[in-house]
């Protein structure tokens, strides 16, 4: 299974982005309203970072519970990225080794989606369920 397959299982969705000059409180509002854990930070059509709830929590802690005067650019980290042809085992290894929960999939300089640890687990579960159904069908046909 490749990253493109996981994106296909996830479904074609909207890529949620934010500009680096946005207030962090705005980014948090988008994340809450959309029920997502990360935003892709884009500037002039290019990926410049990711903002996740991890960065938000760090900012809250560092600023005594206030994020009202912080900008996305102050919290943005340069994310690990993968191409659409990366094997799922390599993606899982990358996510585990770097403690990354969200990885943008970049093809030809454009972000085609973001894969979360949840997306990877769901795709793997669906793949295993499919394989189990196929094996059970094979066993049933062979026994007949």
SSE layout and pairing:
Elements: H1 3-10, E1 17-18, H2 24-34, E2 38-43, E3 46-52, H3 53-62, H4 72-75, H5 88-98, E4 102-107, E5 110-116, H6 117-143
Parallel strand pairs: 1-2
Antiparallel strand pairs: 2-3, 4-5
Question: Could you walk me through the main structural features you see in this protein, from its secondary elements to its overall organization?
Answer:
The structure is a single chain. The chain has 144 residues and is an alpha+beta fold. The protein has a single domain (3-143), classed as CBS-domain (Roll). Helices cover 49% and strands 19% of the residues. The chain has a three-stranded mixed beta sheet. A hairpin with a 2-residue loop joins strand 4 (102-107) and strand 5. The two termini are 32 Å apart. The model has no long low-confidence stretch (mean pLDDT 89).
Q: What would you call the quaternary organization?
A: single chain
- Using the CA coordinates, give the radius of gyration: 18 Å
Tell the overall outline.
elongated
Residue-averaged pLDDT = 89
Strand order of the largest sheet: 1-2-3
Please give the alpha-carbon distance between the first and last residues: 32 Å
Structural class: alpha+beta
Determine the CATH topology. Answer: CBS-domain
Reported CATH architecture: Roll
Portion in helices:
40-55%
Tell me the count of domains: 1
CATH superfamily: CBS-domain
- The number of distinct helices, counting runs of at least 4 residues, comes to 6
């Amino acid at each position: 299974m490749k990253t493109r397959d996981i994106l296909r299982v996830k479904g074609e969705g909207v890529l949620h982005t934010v500009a680096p000059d946005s207030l962090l409180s705005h980014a948090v509002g988008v994340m809450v309203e959309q029920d997502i854990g990360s935003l892709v930070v884009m500037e002039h059509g290019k990926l410049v970072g990711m903002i996740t709830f991890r960065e938000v929590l760090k900012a809250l802690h560092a600023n005594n519970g206030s994020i009202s005067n912080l900008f996305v650019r102050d919290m943005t980290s340069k994310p690990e990225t993968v191409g659409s042809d990366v094997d799922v085992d390599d993606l899982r290894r990358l996510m585990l080794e770097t403690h990354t929960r969200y990885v943008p999939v970049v093809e030809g300089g454009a972000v085609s989606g973001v894969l979360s640890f949840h997306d990877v687990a769901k795709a793997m579960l669906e793949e295993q369920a499919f394989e189990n159904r196929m094996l059970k069908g094979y066993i049933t046909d062979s026994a007949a």
